[in-house]
Q: What sequence folds into this?
């Protein structure tokens, strides 16, 4: 059984604990409430994926900086997958992906969905000010913010973190989507786990948000944001053997595949090579979950070739991540609302 642990004070050792040691301090998923001068709390989620350490390190950095000084705003921190953090993996084999199980998920009711619903209910009662979900990725990606709503408060919050902003509706069941019904909500992609630049960037953003008296209500200027929209998700079928080095799999991806992230990739670009013409292709699904693979890929002499220009995000050479989640997302540029 997954049970939510709630605390109203920092547990001993929390500020110096490594992600792998949190299980010695906390019994499981924990919602930690800290007081501040402004009572409406900033809500921060860390370690939804156990091998994405930047969120925890950024929170620890911010709290050490304030020390004994009262926080300018109340802060609620959800420390999520402590079990996976212990083993430094995205999730344990028996676990759900925590960031697919929040209200709005397509998954059946479970201990995990009930846990996430309880977190949302608690933060609703506390009249949450804004929500921040902190993540890492394993490929070469810039730091960027993701939103599930395009109204001004969400975009203003995102623009405080980065000029690159991605609007997404897939995957479903994310923390950011669930919290966007209550308050301005963003998820942060902070590069590779634990990298100093990512920790510093996330910590600076958290500190700035704690000091905000309100989120600006004026429209975001077009020059301040590069806005993209996720239009499709790319999966490797479970039965497909693949590799990132030539000759070591029936489907082989380009060695520097992740260098395509956030670049306009033209139609005709080779995405992968297949040794067997009957071998399963990549599967591409749209926002509604429909198979749209033929719109994006064609086969030419043993190669999978793009049929249209795309901009990938989250391409990674981490085979385990590809199996557990997806190969990447495809995006397109979009104008800011009203422009």
A:
């Amino acid at each position: 059984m997954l049970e939510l642990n709630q605390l109203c004070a920092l547990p001993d050792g929390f500020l110096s604990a490594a992600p792998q040691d949190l299980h010695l301090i906390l019994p499981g998923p924990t919602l930690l409430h800290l007081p501040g001068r402004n009572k409406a709390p900033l809500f921060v989620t860390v370690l939804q994926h156990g091998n994405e350490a930047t969120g925890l390190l950024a929170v620890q950095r911010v709290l050490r900086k304030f020390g004994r000084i009262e926080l300018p705003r109340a802060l609620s921190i959800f420390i999520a997958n402590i079990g996976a953090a212990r083993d430094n993996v995205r999730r344990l084999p028996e676990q759900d992906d925590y960031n697919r199980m929040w209200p709005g998920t397509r998954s059946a009711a479970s201990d995990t969905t009930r846990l996430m619903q309880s977190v949302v209910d608690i933060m609703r009662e506390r009249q949450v000010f804004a929500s921040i979900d902190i993540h890492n990725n394993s490929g070469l990606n810039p730091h960027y913010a993701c939103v599930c709503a395009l109204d001004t408060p969400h975009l203003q919050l995102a623009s405080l973190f980065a000029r690159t902003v991605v609007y997404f509706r897939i995957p479903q069941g994310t923390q950011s989507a669930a919290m966007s019904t209550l308050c301005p909500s963003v998820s942060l992609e902070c590069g590779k786990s634990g990298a100093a630049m990512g920790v510093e960037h996330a910590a600076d953003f958290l500190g700035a948000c704690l000091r905000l008296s309100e989120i600006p209500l004026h429209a975001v200027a077009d020059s301040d944001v590069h806005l993209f929209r996720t239009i499709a998700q790319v999966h490797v079928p479970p039965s497909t053997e693949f590799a990132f080095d030539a000759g070591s799999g029936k489907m082989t991806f380009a060695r520097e595949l992740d260098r395509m992230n956030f670049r306009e990739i033209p139609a005709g670009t080779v995405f992968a090579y297949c040794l067997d013409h009957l071998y399963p292709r990549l599967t591409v699904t749209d926002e509604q979950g429909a198979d749209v693979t033929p719109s994006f890929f064609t086969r030419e002499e043993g190669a999978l070739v793009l049929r249209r220009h795309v901009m990938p995000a989250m391409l990674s050479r981490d085979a385990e991540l590809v199996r557990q989640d997806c190969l990447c997302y495809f995006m397109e540029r979009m104008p800011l609302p009203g422009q």
